[in-house]
Amino acid sequence: MNGFEFIVAPLILFMIFVAPLWLILHYRSKKQVSQGLSEHEHRQLVDLADKAEKMAERIQTLESLLDAEAPQWRNKG
Known about the structure:
Structural class: mainly alpha
Order of helices and strands: HH
Distance between the termini: 68 Å
Strand content: under 5%
Oligomer: single chain
Helix content: over 70%
Number of helices: 2
């Protein structure tokens, strides 16, 4: 009976404190995911997409300059 009591006490504590908090946080995060992006997150996503587009243009420009100046640069890596 002693070993059984050793397991029951932590199990009861888990069920009283950890499990409800775990469930609340789990369903809160599911609710946020189902609601989609907030206005702030959407604005951040648009900003990141703009920055990525500008970076892609800069990389393309740099690659064209390198192709003109050092045509074998791609083979050096």
